[in-house]
Amino acid sequence: MARDRAHDERHAVSRIGWLRAAVLGANDGIVSTAALIVGVAAAQATRGPIVLAASAGLVAGAMSMAAGEYVSVASQADSESADLARERLELETQPEAELEEMTAIYVARGLTPDLARQVAVQLNAGDALAAHARDELGISEHLTARPVQAALTSATTFAVGAVMPLLVAILAPLPVILPVVTVATLIFLAVLGALGAWAGGAPPLKPMLRVTFWGALALAATALIGKLFGAVV
């Protein structure tokens, strides 16, 4: 008779805080840097201006991603802190009203009124603020805003993503730099889509097609701009 194994569940939601920033940063790094390279190359530039534009885009993009993510997630964290402070005050000054509110939440989720009341009473007897944060405000440990983590993740993954088309631009022969960078970028994006899906526990095909499509669109647009201007940068 086979022995029972411990029930071990690992949910992707525990990684959502850094996973979103990582995928966004890497995708933006690949697409924006490759688009710069393709746009400048389409204008018949030599390798020097191409590499310079891509390098400047890498540094500026990484800093912009870090600042943008920090400001955005910090604003979310401020809102969460304000909501928690308000909830803490209400628990202290209006405990019965908060208990009724929790009971109504559990009734709406399918519990009978008596059972919902029992659950609300028992949860409020423990960490009431955590229970209200989770069930009333939708704030949980896995979804709590972490500005520094998001900023560092975005900046790092942007730089890693940007380095890949930059290296291709440095190594590829100048006459074929545009098609080589284009093909390599689409491959990078498809791999990124698959990795993001794997880390999030999702099927890979749709994420791969999604990031590849939008990447191809960005490259086509910048190549068209470079061709239209047709001037050496």
Percentage beta strand: under 5%
**What is the helical fraction, as a range of percent?**
over 70%
- Count of alpha/pi helices: 8
Largest sheet: none
- Overall geometry comes to elongated
- How are helices and strands ordered from N to C? HHHHHHHH
Number of domains: 1
Rounded to an integer, what's the Rg over CA atoms? 25 Å
Number of strands: 0
Alpha-beta classification: mainly alpha
Look at the structure and give the mean pLDDT. Answer: 83
Q: Which regions are unreliable across 5 or more consecutive residues at pLDDT < 50?
A: none
Q: What separation lies between the terminal Cα atoms?
A: 74 Å
Structure description:
- The protein has one domain.
- By secondary structure, it is mainly alpha-helical.
- The chain has helices at residues 16-42, 47-93, 95-108, 113-125, 128-135, 147-171, 177-200, 205-229.
- The radius of gyration is 25 Å and the shape is elongated.
Produce a short descriptive summary.
The chain contains eight helices and no strands. It is mostly helical and 233 residues long.
Give the helices and strands, then pairings.
Elements: H1 16-42, H2 47-93, H3 95-108, H4 113-125, H5 128-135, H6 147-171, H7 177-200, H8 205-229
Helix pairs in contact: 1-2, 1-6, 1-7, 1-8, 2-3, 2-5, 2-6, 3-4, 6-7, 7-8
List the keywords:
single chain; 233 residues; mainly alpha; 8 helices; 79% helix; 0% strand; elongated
